Amino acid sequence: MISGSLVALATPMNPDGTLDWERLDGLVDFHIKNGTDAIVAVGTTGESATLNPDEHCAVIRRVVERVKANAEGKIAVIAGTGANSTTEAIDLTKEASKAGVDACLLVTPYYNKPTQEGLYLHYKTIAEAVNVDQILYNVPGRTAVDMLNETVVRLADIPNIIGVKDATGGLARGKALIELVGDRIAVYSGDDATAVELMLMGAKGNISVTANVAPKDMADLCRLALAGEAEQARAISERLMPLNENLFVEANPIPVKWALQQMGLIQEGIRLPLTPLSAPFHNDVLSALKSAGVQ
After folding, report:
1. Of 72, 89, 114, 279, which is most buried, counting CB atoms within 10 Å of its CB?
2. Which member of 120, 137, 188, 257 is catalytic?
3. In order along the chain (295 residues), what is the average pLDDT of each group of 10 residues?
């Protein structure tokens, strides 16, 4: 089972918006060095919505290749392959499987607002079409559709559906989900601010935006929380809380890409309709980086 700190990796770009392969390699090395347990390539934070299909698959292949080539040790690679078209999601998932990923992360279909039965059939169809481990991803604040716990329970019976990323931020709901699915599938936090508490309730890890800039701290936090070391895990979480909050002052990944640029890890590239972080928020993000001991 994949567990621990799973970074939702930002996709580095040149100032003109083209992909920056050299810095992508550098980010992979950075996470391996700092103890990240898995890399999620081309999820929401990786600007999946602005990459074309060829770029999407190329980034996944590059991350897999870089992980395999790194002498410091292998970590898991999870590919973001969700789409609001079931056939497109199948195509992306097939390509990711061919690339050799450990699992795929599939966001709920956005904009078209399917029913719960539509969500069930969407994921069931993908799982049956591609023999690779798959993780459901529920983030209603971005997709305008909410996959209910009862639907996740139905999907947990499908053998290669092995987890769900709960980005609702609701701890009561997350706890109920963990109790409902038991040990059939893993529940992962998708909300940095509440990740410690959800892991202490039984979640298996955190798919994290904050890990982009504080990978060692997030890896330590997850390790401690999974071991039941509540006091120590909460202390790290409290120190990271300004980051957890300020990396969302504008739509993700705008703030985290700006923060990575300040750290010298990527260039300023980001694709429209996303824009660079607005000037009024610069000091807030810088202060958060400093308070976390990152900058």
Report:
1. 89
2. 137
3. 97 97 98 97 96 97 95 88 97 98 97 97 98 97 96 98 96 97 97 97 98 98 98 97 97 98 97 97 97 83
Q: Considering 94, 165, 204, 257, which one is annotated as catalytic? A: 165
pLDDT confidence of residue 295 = 65
Q: Is 165 a catalytic residue?
A: yes
- Rg of the Cα atoms in the chain: 18
Q: How many angstroms separate the first and last alpha carbons of the chain?
A: 33
216 is catalytic: no
Measured CA to CA, the distance from residue 67 to residue 101 in angstroms comes to 10
Question: In 3-state terms, what secondary structure has residue 77?
Answer: strand
Q: How far apart are CA 37 and CA 77, in angstroms?
A: 9
- Which pTM was predicted? 0.96
Which one-letter DSSP state was computed for residue 276?
P
